[in-house]
Design goal:
By secondary structure, the protein is of the alpha/beta class. 45% of the residues lie in helices and 13% in strands. It contains 10 helices and 8 strands. It has a 6-stranded parallel beta sheet with strand order 5-4-1-6-7-8, sandwiched between helices. The longest helix is centred in the middle third of the chain and has 18 residues.
Length: 219
Amino acid sequence: MSKTHRFDLVIFDWDGTLMNSEARIVDAIQSAAQFCGLPILSHHDSKQIIGLSLDNAINQLYPGVEPGLVVEVAKAYTQHFLHDSVVDMQPYEGAQDLLSELHGRGIKLAVATGKSRTGLDAVLALTGFEPYFHITRTPVESASKPDPLMLKQILEFCNVDVSQAVMVGDTSFDMQMAQAIQMPRVAMSHGVHTLEQMAGFEPMSNFDNLSALGRWLLS
C-alpha cells in the first residue's frame, strides 16, 4: 500500500501556529514591563520575540538588563499570562480537526516551542490537545530557538529520519532551526512573522490556514 501522506513526523510550533495567542503574550509582556519599571514597548516590537525562550525574549527586548531583573520580569510575565490576563486566546480554526486527522493516520506529532514547560502544560490541558502528541519540547528540557536541539531530541525520540519530518511554524526562529539541520519546513502566515521575514530560510511551502496545511500534508 502506498503512503498517503508526505511525512512520518510533523513538528508544530505552538504560539502563532496552533494557538492564536499573540495578543495575550503581548499583553503579558507589556504588563510585566510596567510592573518591573521598564519601558512599555509597542505591540509590533513586543511580538517579534514570540517563539524565543522567555529569558532570551526579555534580553532581546531590553538589552543590558541586569540578570536579576530578567528573573523578575519573567516571573511577572508568567503570573500575568497564566493567571491575571483577561485577553482571550483560542486555537486557530481547524487545529483540532488537523491534529485528529493526522493522529488518526498514524503520523507522529510533536511540539517544539519557546514556552516554558509550565506554560505549555497549562495550555495543553486547556485545549485538550495533549493526547495527540508523541513528545513535546520546551527550552526547559532543551535549548531556545533557533538552536535546533529541540528538533534533534524529537527526531531521536520518534526514531524518524530528518528527511521524513517537517517543522511547521510562524516565525523566522522556527524556519532557522529547521534549516540548520536540513529539516523540511513550512511557514504559516497567520501568526507572528511575515512571509518576507521567513523567506530567507527557504520554507518548502507556506499556508495561511491550518485546513490548507492539512490538505497538503495528506496529499
